[in-house]
Amino acid sequence: VTRQVRVCVVGAGSWGTTVAALAARNVPTVLWARSEDSAREINEQHTNSRYLEDRQLPQDLRATSDLEEALVEADLVVYAVPSHGLRDVVKRSAGHVRPWIPLLSLVKGLEPETLRRPTEVLAEELPGHPTGLLAGPNLAKEIMDGLAAAAVVATPDDVVAQSMQPIFHTRRFRVYRNRDVVGSEMGGVLKNLIAIATGMADGLGTGDNTRAMVIARGLNEMTRLGEAMGADPMTMSGLTGLGDLMATCMSRQSRNRRVGEELGRGSTIEEVLEGMEQVAEGVRTARSVMAIAEAHDVLMPISAEVDAVVNEGRTAREAYRGLLGVQAQHERHPVA
Amino acid sequence: VTRQVRVCVVGAGSWGTTVAALAARNVPTVLWARSEDSAREINEQHTNSRYLEDRQLPQDLRATSDLEEALVEADLVVYAVPSHGLRDVVKRSAGHVRPWIPLLSLVKGLEPETLRRPTEVLAEELPGHPTGLLAGPNLAKEIMDGLAAAAVVATPDDVVAQSMQPIFHTRRFRVYRNRDVVGSEMGGVLKNLIAIATGMADGLGTGDNTRAMVIARGLNEMTRLGEAMGADPMTMSGLTGLGDLMATCMSRQSRNRRVGEELGRGSTIEEVLEGMEQVAEGVRTARSVMAIAEAHDVLMPISAEVDAVVNEGRTAREAYRGLLGVQAQHERHPVA
Description:
Two copies of one chain form a homodimer. By secondary structure, chain A is of the alpha/beta class. Chain A has helices spanning 14-24, 36-44, 49-52, 67-71, 83-93, 118-125, 140-144, 158-168, 181-204, 207-228, 233-236, 239-250, 255-264, 269-274, 281-295, 301-312, 316-324; strands spanning 7-10, 29-32, 62-64, 76-79, 103-105, 131-135, 149-154, 173-178. In chain A, strand 1, helix 1 (14-24) and strand 2 form a beta-alpha-beta unit. Chain A is globular and about 60 Å long.
């Protein structure tokens, strides 16, 4: 890289804003906000109060609601919008993105209906650009508060990844790299169901052994599906798989975990969802994960029980009994 | 196996007694207790109150304090004594153990001084027997209380392992198998230091991202050392590595975790140890793990910081700062 990289982050939600704030410490950074008011607040108050309350953003982080203006000088575009809105924003940005430059996804989850991974959507709509993602156990507010965290830049070209590390790296935010895009991207999808399952175990009051078993066997089935999709099995055990799973299982802020706990205590899925503003990711994606597992002929007993609970009215207690009935084989055997 | 296997468990501590209770549901089982009083209590009251309070043992679990009597009819011997006393008990049993029969270790930790793994001690003192271990996220009292758990029988011969699964398997205790003895055995040793490290992070109040990072990067360095010792890298991500680590990190009963938390809150190691009846495993083995890592030329930054805190007077805060200074590389790179 001959001159300093200029970054554009597309999407000013809590995670997009946080990543833009990290990048702005290292390189010139523009944040595209859908709302003009948000852009103005970021420029004038240096806050994004809708998502991050009164947390201070760097003075030199610039925001705009004009997508062309945001993209026109960017050497690296980072997409940070919800998975269901990604394709549309990428299409709209197509005319403005400079040729050849890498595109990075911060998007959580698969595109509904198509089940495409976010980097696949990027590659379909903007072919010819290197694509990758930044992911890991990253609760945005903790990062804004200066608590230590680590993430992974995953992109097939390790040289590109190496040049991206210093763009996001700060003293408190460690950026590793990995060439395994499929594994890194799927970790964040698959962990949601396992987080619901550990929440269910907690709600049922099954103890520390059971919770540890669900996590270890959950990671096992995440890994088996990842492998079937072409991922490196070790990726699931890293920051984007296990790490993300841990942050989700342990965080009091996690919707997935909370859904699981309430199901475990005996609530129906309807009762649980009634009390929530936003549907937990794992509830929305259970069906998609099952469809992918089936397409790859991979048995995922824990995810399947979670799917049955959130989509077919099975109770958490029945799911738990169902799991105990699965025969224990070799640790790495396809049947859990 | 042509007739029913008869099991002898050598050692009536909480874990040995629990495993004997599991086996006794499936096959004739004898438990050797060092103390005659314990043996009598187990036979007459069907309790082992010193370790398991008033929890009921199976009526047909037989106990004896006579080692010869315990061993003479056994087709499978399970050693469940502390690592520092293992070699002596194995030597004493040598004249009574039937030829060829498999020996299984429940022993936690390495032999002090020699740094031998328990299965190595078995093989040295009783050559010619197949050796293996049973391990996993198994808090004994939870298993006695009927809460679900899973463990792994690790032994190089998968046919032997398959014939052992039904000996210990119950409706609530799932027994997987694995051929990787080194990896399965080292998981239980290496997790102690990572559990102290996550406790330190908790005590320092560093948040969910940091805790998830310590677990994922801790598993990474456990895996790298395992690999250098000849283990399958995936074993560390299974029940005997990550699973055991999870049970230790999350359990309120865990001494390792408690030591870490108090260190994180600013206590010195001397102050922490003063308040404990029994030294936490991770404190005792930090030096041994560092010696093995050095012998295999593997860098383990998290374990090294824990070692410095428990053995060299470094504060938890300094350790945490030290870790943030380590350069982030490729996720699987030998330098964390």
